[in-house]
Design brief:
The chain has 259 residues and is an alpha/beta fold. Helices cover 31% and strands 24% of the residues. The longest helix has 15 residues.
Length: 259
């Protein structure tokens, strides 16, 4: 299994996940030229795409979906809330509906959607299993509830939102109502919330953690990285040494993990 976050942030989000038989995009928030450039940068220019999975309907996650799906005749997997939230998705010919908590298969990958808290229609994260590897993706969520924490257990890799530093957000240029939205349980995860999960709810199995959806206005990559690493170190030196923490980026792909 291979994994890379092709782009993550308010200007566009997309993650590529592939096995020897199956290749998926999770979300697609930028256009075809940007996708092609990022795939090439990741060494995936010849990789096929068998399906697109959608976490929710906000534009930075879906604005490239309809064009790509129609051009390449790729099925789009989404729940009915996302389909109804985005008008251009309602006209797609090839789409499959899923329900949170009900696993389904695409090729040799098993996918389990799970509900997260965010201010969109029926937002989800995903848990994946294939080739003996398990992982989970949870971005755009305001809290790590107990059900979400359970879905992040027994994974070999995690993609987890670390959107903002609370002090930078409070002192930053956003209007107060937007700051309240980001800080709410329907908003985005802060660095400190990720740290609390790693200090308390994390089972320590994942060998790779990718920090996603970092705000360019309200975060600093070094702060996010330090917060996650310090949380792991507080738990145990062995955990700090075993779990590699990686940054994702808005304008380029993350590291390509060979799992």
């Amino acid at each position: 299994m291979k994994l890379t976050v092709l782009g993550s942030g308010s200007s566009g989000n997309c993650t590529w996940l592939g096995t020897s038989r199956t290749s998926l995009l999770i979300d697609l928030g930028f256009g075809p030229r940007s996708l092609a450039r990022r795939m090439k940068q990741a060494g995936l220019e010849n990789a096929p795409v068998d399906a697109i999975l959608l976490t929710h309907g906000h534009a930075d996650h879906v604005k490239g979906v309809a064009c790509f799906a129609e051009r390449h005749q790729v099925p789009v997997f989404m729940n009915i809330g996302t389909r109804e939230e985005v008008p251009e998705l309602a006209s797609l010919d090839r789409w499959e509906e899923f329900q949170p908590g009900v696993p389904f298969t695409i090729g040799d990958l098993t996918v389990e959607p799970f509900t997260v808290s965010h201010d969109s229609a029926q937002p989800v994260g995903f848990r994946f299993q294939g080739e003996g590897i398990r992982g989970a993706l949870a971005t755009d969520l305001g809290e790590i509830s107990m059900p979400v924490a359970n879905r992040l257990q027994q994974c070999d890799w995690l993609v987890l939102e670390s959107n903002h530093d609370e002090d930078l957000l409070k002192l930053g240029p956003y209007p107060w109502n937007l700051k309240q939205r980001v800080l709410s349980r329907l908003g985005h995860l802060s660095n400190s919330e990720v740290g609390r999960f790693l200090s308390n709810g994390f089972d320590g199995q994942a060998r790779h953690l990718l920090l996603a959806h970092l705000s360019q206005q309200n975060n600093d990559p070094l702060i996010a990285l330090r917060c996650a690493r310090q949380a792991l170190l507080r738990r145990a030196l062995s955990l700090f040494e075993q779990c590699q923490v990686h940054l994702t980026h808005q304008g380029k792909p993350s590291i390509v993990l060979n799992l």
